[in-house]
């Protein structure tokens, strides 16, 4: 094999030309969300079958089952579950950085059975956040589906040792059954994991360009649905992990066909591939630091980040402080419905 040549990063002047081209013609490539902030998360009619190329190191939802139908007169305690990401592998390490995974627990008063419901990546977080660059494909290849997982039991030690297991409300069996129908719809139409939230600045009321779509958002949607069904939540503080990028107003560049197909946009296609190249898995400490320098050059020096959202590519004009991992309070929802009496 010959020596592989890594293409040079695009200098800032070329970036300006690309932005001008995108503003003039790239926006007409079916980017429905351009100018609507935050860009609405796109839902789909059905979930596609994952490509066999996408393989998970850890099996998705290994003991999963369908949501059971509860007796309408049952009373179920609802629990807030939170633990450090990859707690099973690293213990509480990521908990010290407040990088947490969220889920919902249920306990039936009639049967005494416990259940856990969560939403996460089919092929692990890295595959949802960055694509594969395959020699046979000009376009980056994504393994970024996420889905709901429901199974019997609550692993008390897992959630309590380094995280949270606390009751937030009580619902009826009838409310659970209605929620289960909503979960099926939500799971079949909201199929892609989105790691990043994107905002204009770290200020509290700054404009949100893109919302994340991950485990904590599923938990918040579930709580909101239960509130709509009449659940009354306790007055407790609830915090969630957010990973936020900061940028000026994003510009939509197009989708895979308009950028990487025929005739496509060769300059933008090459720029996007070059951007994602340093995010590939590294095999040595030296390679890690070389790739890290390339990432810093793109994001910090050239103020450029390519975001893949709703199956479309956007360019983010990055701003200081560029990225922030926060553990922010998002209150439990209010309900105007009558409280269920257990």
Brief sketch in words of this structure:
By secondary structure, the chain is α+β, with helices and mostly antiparallel strands.
Please tell me about this protein's structure.
- With 342 residues, the protein is α+β, with helices and mostly antiparallel strands.
- It has one domain.
- It has helices spanning 12-24, 87-90, 124-129, 156-161, 173-189, 215-228, 256-260, 266-276, 285-301, and strands spanning 75-84, 100-108, 114-121, 146-152, 164-172, 197-199, 208-210, 239-247, 251-255, 304-309, 312-329.
- The strands form two sheets. Strands 6, 7, 8, 9, 10 and 11 form a six-stranded mixed beta sheet that branches. Strands 4-3-2-1-5 form a five-stranded antiparallel beta sheet.
- The longest helix has 17 residues, at 173-189.
- The radius of gyration is 22 Å and the shape is globular.
- Belongs to the CLN5 family.
- Pfam families: CLN5.
- Keywords: Glycoprotein, Signal.
Question: Portion of residues in helices?
Answer: 25-40%
Q: Helical element count?
A: 9
Uncertain runs are 1-28, 337-342
Q: Tell me the total number of β-strands.
A: 11
How many discrete structural domains?
1
Sheet bearing the most strands, described?
Answer: 6 strands, mixed
| Percent of sequence in beta strands | 25-35%
C-alpha Rg (nearest Å): 22 Å
Can you tell me the overall shape? globular
Helical/strand content category: alpha+beta
- Compute the average pLDDT: 87
Q: Give the SSE string.
A: HEHEEHEHEHEEHEEHHHEE
Ends: how far apart? 70 Å
Keywords: Glycoprotein, Signal
Signal peptide: 1-28
GO cellular component, one term: vacuolar lumen
Family: Belongs to the CLN5 family.
């Amino acid at each position: 094999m010959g020596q592989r040549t890594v293409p040079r990063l695009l200098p800032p002047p070329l970036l300006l030309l690309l932005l001008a081209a995108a503003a003039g013609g790239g926006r007409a490539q079916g980017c429905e969300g351009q100018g609507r902030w935050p860009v609405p998360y796109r839902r789909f009619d059905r979930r596609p079958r994952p490509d066999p190329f996408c393989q998970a190191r850890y099996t998705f939802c290994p003991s999963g089952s369908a949501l059971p139908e509860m007796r309408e007169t049952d009373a179920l305690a609802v629990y807030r579950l939170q633990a450090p990401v990859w707690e099973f592998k690293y213990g509480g390490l990521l908990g010290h950085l407040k990088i947490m995974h969220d889920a919902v627990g249920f306990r039936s008063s009639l049967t005494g059975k416990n259940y856990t419901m969560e939403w996460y990546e089919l092929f692990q977080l890295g595959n949802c956040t960055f694509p594969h660059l395959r020699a046979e494909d000009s376009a980056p290849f994504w393994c970024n589906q996420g889905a709901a997982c429901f199974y019997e039991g609550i692993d008390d030690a897992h959630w309590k040792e380094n995280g949270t297991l606390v009751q937030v409300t009580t619902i009826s069996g009838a409310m659970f059954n209605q929620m289960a129908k909503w979960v099926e719809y939500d799971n079949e139409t909201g199929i892609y994991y989105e790691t990043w939230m994107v905002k204009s600045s770290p200020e509290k009321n700054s404009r949100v360009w893109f919302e994340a779509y991950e485990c904590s958002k599923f938990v918040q949607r579930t709580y909101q649905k239960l509130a709509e069904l009449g659940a009354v939540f306790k007055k407790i503080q609830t915090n969630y992990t957010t990973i936020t990028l900061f940028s000026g107003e994003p510009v939509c560049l197009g989708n895979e066909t308009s950028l990487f197909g025929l005739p496509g946009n060769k300059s933008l296609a090459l720029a996007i591939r070059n951007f994602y190249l340093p995010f590939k898995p590294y095999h040595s400490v030296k390679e890690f630091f070389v790739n890290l320098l390339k990432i810093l050059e793109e994001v910090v020096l050239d103020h450029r980040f390519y975001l893949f959202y709703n199956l479309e590519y956007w360019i983010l004009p990055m701003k200081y402080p560029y990225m922030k991992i926060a553990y922010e309070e998002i209150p439990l929802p209010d309900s105007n419905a009558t409280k269920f009496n257990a």
